[in-house]
Amino acid sequence: MTREDKILKELKSGISDGLEELIEGYYPEILRYCIWHTPDRAAAEDAVQETFLKVIRYMDEYTHRGKFRAFLYKVASNTCKDIWRARKPAEPLSENAAYTEAAFETVESDVDLRLLTARLPDSQREVLLLRFAQELTLREIAKVLNLPLRTVQSRLRAALKALEKQIEKGDCYP
Q1: Residue 23 belongs to a domain with what CATH number?
Q2: How far apart are CA 133 and CA 18, in angstroms?
């Protein structure tokens, strides 16, 4: 039994000592995901907080089958969609975007990835970002997006082919 399994079992039985550990363990990666999917950092932080509040609120209804990470990303995805519906989207990042926060140490590669994927259809871009920016497995992505595994595989393959063509043409950025 993993530490995560033990914490989730305790939470189900009313013991909440491990809740903070669970949140701290997933907070950075959920924040990074939300930064990709919200208009700004403040909205991303709000989305992360709301994600964890929803998870806590609905913990009684959650049945743990070893897929908590995918469940957490699904809640974060829905929360970010709600934020986009409520707000007007911000302008896309420019190539010269500069961040000074410590959490953005990898911002250059993230901005490159964002610009490189800007021309992809949303469905392909989402699969690509979940796979390479968030390092989710294909099965986890299928669970998050509520898609068959084969669909996730074909979208990833199509996205990679489209990126390869962009790079070959030297047409990498919008």
Answers
A1: 1.10.1740.10
A2: 27
